[in-house]
């Protein structure tokens, strides 16, 4: 099987601070060998979707079904962000951004933040300081 985007939309997410617009993407990742050519497509589609979303869109939720660990996706994602000034800008506006890897039955295997750790948020022991909105 090949890698593919099976879902891409902007949806309303219900959060403790109220409803918020979220870009939501679903990915099937079955071929890690071709991931280097697939990740630019993923990044480009996110940029296009965020561009046509409401101006205050500040949530990005990506789900993966497949063999790629979420931490590996994050590393590759952050490399794509570094290459694209528009994507860098959009990611700087995110209050929440994560990748969730799961199984076809809906079971969650892992969930990882896609936001880079900022040095001012770091606490001893490698934890992130809570952020209040």
Explained architecture:
It is a single chain. The protein is an alpha/beta fold and 133 residues long. It has one domain (4-116). The protein is built from three helices and five strands; from the N terminus they run ββαβααββ. It has helices spanning 35-51, 70-83, 85-92, and strands at 4-15, 18-29, 59-66, 96-102, 108-113. The model is unreliable at 121-133 (pLDDT under 50).
- Overall tally of domains: 1
The structural class is: alpha/beta
Topology, number of strands:
5
* Average predicted local confidence, pLDDT: 89
Overall geometric form: globular
Supply the number of helical segments. 3
C-alpha termini separation = 42 Å
Q: State Rg.
A: 15 Å
Major sheet: arrangement of strands: 1-2-3-4-5
Largest sheet: 5 strands, mixed
Uncertain stretches = 121-133
Share of residues in helices: 25-40%
- In percent, how much strand structure appears in the residues? 25-35%
Following the backbone from N to C, one meets helices and strands in this order, namely: EEHEHHEE
Search tags:
single chain, 133 residues, alpha/beta, five-stranded mixed sheet, 3 helices, 29% helix, globular
Summed up:
The chain is an alpha/beta fold.
SSE layout:
Blueprint: E1 4-15, E2 18-29, H1 35-51, E3 59-66, H2 70-83, H3 85-92, E4 96-102, E5 108-113
